[in-house]
């Protein structure tokens, strides 16, 4: 068994791999119980062996579940694969991510509108005393509404922390160096 083909609970019909990051892989799947398409993020096997990483992933899911907002990716399920790897099922974003869109040279108007939505999500996090810490184009997922208008969801709260914790413990700083604010570096 490898990380490319996780053994998901019976309710999920596994599809293709749609993303990969430092901590796991994301797969397209059909949730047969809810009759909906989902993205399933599965933690890498080498990381799942570490108790501290499992706790961090559980914290990420907990934070994401608490911040219900139209611009935050909705979560649908959380659990373990049949071979004991933590996973989270979230809304599927069929239009990729902001990084994909930027490669297509979108209009300035479209980018500004999507970034306004990202700011709405960040405001919702900040209102709860949280900071994302790893906001980058890959973590802004895209989808279209019933009228064909593209919208964004902020995802991947793996580096999110409460502002009160960061004020006391600067060792909690994380993120992707190329996208970090200068004061974080």
Overview of this protein structure:
The chain is α+β, with helices and mostly antiparallel strands. The protein is built from 5 helices and 9 strands. The strands form 3 sheets. The chain has a 5-stranded antiparallel β-sheet with strand order 1-2-3-5-4. The protein has a two-stranded antiparallel ribbon with strand order 6-9. Strand 4 and strand 5 form a beta hairpin. The longest helix is centred in the middle third of the chain and has 20 residues, at 108-127. It starts with 11 loop residues before the first strand and ends in a 17-residue tail after the last helix. The mean pLDDT is 85.
Features:
alpha+beta, five-stranded antiparallel sheet, 2 domains, two-stranded antiparallel sheet, Phosphorylase Kinase, domain 1, 185 residues
Give a nutshell description of this structure.
It is built from five helices and nine strands. With 185 residues, the chain is α+β, with helices and mostly antiparallel strands. The chain is globular and about 45 Å long.
Topology:
Blueprint (H helix, E strand, L loop, with lengths): L11 E9 L3 E8 L4 E8 L1 H4 L2 H16 L8 E6 L5 E6 L6 H6 L4 H20 L2 E2 L8 E5 L5 E5 L6 E2 H6 L17
Antiparallel strand pairs: 1-2, 2-3, 3-5, 4-5, 6-9, 7-8
Spell out the CATH superfamily of the largest domain: Transferase(Phosphotransferase) domain 1
Report the uncertain regions. Answer: none
Major sheet strand order: 1-2-3-5-4
| CATH architectural group of the largest domain | Orthogonal Bundle
End-to-end distance, in Å? Answer: 38 Å
Q: What would you report as the Rg, rounded to the nearest angstrom?
A: 16 Å
Class from helix and strand fractions? alpha+beta
């Amino acid at each position: 068994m490898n990380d490319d083909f996780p053994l998901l609970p019976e309710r999920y019909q596994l599809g293709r791999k749609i993303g990969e990051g430092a901590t796991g892989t994301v797969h397209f799947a059909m949730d047969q119980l809810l009759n909906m398409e989902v993205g399933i993020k599965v933690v890498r096997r080498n990381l799942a062996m570490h108790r501290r990483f499992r706790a961090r992933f559980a914290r990420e899911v907990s934070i994401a579940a608490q911040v219900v907002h139209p611009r935050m990716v909705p979560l649908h399920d959380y659990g373990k694969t049949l071979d004991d790897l933590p996973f989270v099922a979230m809304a599927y974003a069929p239009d990729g991510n902001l990084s994909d869109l930027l490669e297509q040279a979108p209009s300035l108007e479209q980018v500004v509108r999507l970034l306004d939505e990202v700011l709405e999500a960040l405001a919702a996090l900040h209102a709860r005393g949280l900071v994302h810490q790893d906001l980058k184009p890959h973590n802004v997922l895209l989808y279209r509404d019933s009228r064909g208008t593209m919208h964004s969801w902020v995802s991947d709260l793996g580096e999110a922390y409460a502002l009160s914790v960061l004020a006391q413990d600067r060792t909690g700083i994380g993120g992707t160096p190329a996208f970090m604010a200068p004061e974080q570096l």
